């Protein structure tokens, strides 16, 4: 018997994930591929195709009714290239119709909440916050890359740690174990500032994000320098979220409801709307705990953790087809188990 499904895709710079989901919210198949960011990935179309093929193969005999692709880098300048890659992959696996393209930010919010509007804070290699409405970003803050922004991200933590290590070596800052631990992680001699400079400049910035756990672990071991860096990262992330919450109030005029009823007020940031936390840095650890506590204290409610982003994309696809929010919510609950 042919089962009807929707497809959800969450494509980042290094990994693409795809799920095939039944209309009641059950995941029937999943797949993975390489990165599909149009700015940084080698072959986005091939990565999307690989993830689609694997998910459809696992799902079996299905008919695809709709799909939503959340692709990192697909906003504004990157949208044409992302759309070309999406449509090439879609055609390559023999599917008809036209899937909907959005970015990974909207998908991250939908991976934590089935609400129509709310905020999301994402911190992994990079960092960004956004207010999302009806499956699209209404307002965003940061996400400008390691050189100009991404404050509180893994790369930001790594660079702050390396700067602190160099300051300790040349007498501008306090000493401690952080420099030696970072040197060990970089496989360079401890106490040699030029070795740190060469190692840092010899790597792509995104790779430096792998040093963030070293900074976090050193903070957990009681080093005040590392602890200060982690605390500052949390404050910067909360400031990024705060800018979004302040700017997105209200975000859109309400639509006229059926039957001529009086429309309700537009969604307002900070007035009971959900706040979703996504990304590896906000999943667990000292930084995640500080951000969760800060959100709860400032907005009066605990934030919601996101599940796998592909489920968020599938939830948006279900909503596009008129499925109730309950199906989307069930999809997220199953992903959290």
TrEMBL record:
Domain ATPase BadF/BadG/BcrA/BcrD type: 7-317
Alphabetical UniProt keywords: Kinase, Transferase
One Pfam family it belongs to: BcrAD_BadFG
GO MF annotation: an example: kinase activity
Domain of life from the UniProt record: Bacteria
Protein name: N-acetylglucosamine kinase
């Amino acid at each position: 018997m042919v089962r009807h499904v929707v497809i959800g895709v969450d494509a980042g710079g290094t990994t693409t994930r795809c799920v095939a989901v039944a209309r009641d919210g059950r995941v029937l198949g999943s797949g993975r591929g390489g990165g599909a960011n149009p700015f940084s990935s080698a072959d986005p179309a091939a990565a999307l195709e690989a993830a689609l093929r694997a998910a459809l193969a696992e799902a079996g005999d299905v008919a695809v009714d709709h799909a939503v692709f959340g692709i990192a880098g697909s906003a504004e300048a990157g949208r044409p290239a992302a759309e070309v890659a999406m449509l090439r992959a879609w055609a390559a696996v023999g599917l008809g119709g036209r899937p909907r393209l959005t970015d990974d930010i909207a998908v991250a919010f939908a991976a934590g909440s089935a609400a129509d509007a709310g905020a999301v804070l994402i911190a992994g290699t990079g960092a960004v916050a956004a207010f999302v409405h009806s499956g699209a970003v209404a307002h965003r803050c940061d996400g400008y890359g390691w050189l100009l922004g991404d404050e509180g991200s893994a790369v930001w933590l790594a660079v702050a740690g390396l700067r602190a290590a160099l300051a300790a070596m040349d007498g501008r800052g306090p000493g401690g174990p952080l420099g030696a631990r970072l040197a060990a992680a970089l496989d360079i001699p401890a106490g040699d500032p030029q070795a740190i400079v060469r190692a840092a400049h010899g790597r792509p910035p995104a790779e430096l994000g792998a040093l963030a756990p070293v900074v976090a672990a050193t903070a957990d071991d009681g080093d005040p320098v590392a602890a200060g860096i982690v605390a500052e990262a949390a404050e910067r992330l909360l400031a990024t979220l705060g800018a979004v919450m302040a700017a997105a109030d209200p975000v859109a005029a309400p639509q006229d409801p059926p039957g001529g009823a009086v429309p309700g007020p537009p969604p307002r940031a900070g007035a009971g709307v959900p706040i979703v936390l996504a990304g590896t840095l906000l999943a667990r650890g000292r930084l995640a705990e500080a951000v969760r506590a800060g959100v709860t204290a400032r907005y009066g409610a605990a934030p919601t953790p996101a599940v796998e982003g592909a489920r968020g994309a599938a939830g948006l696809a279900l909503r596009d087809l008129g499925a109730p929010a309950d199906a989307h919510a069930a999809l997220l609950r199953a992903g959290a188990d």
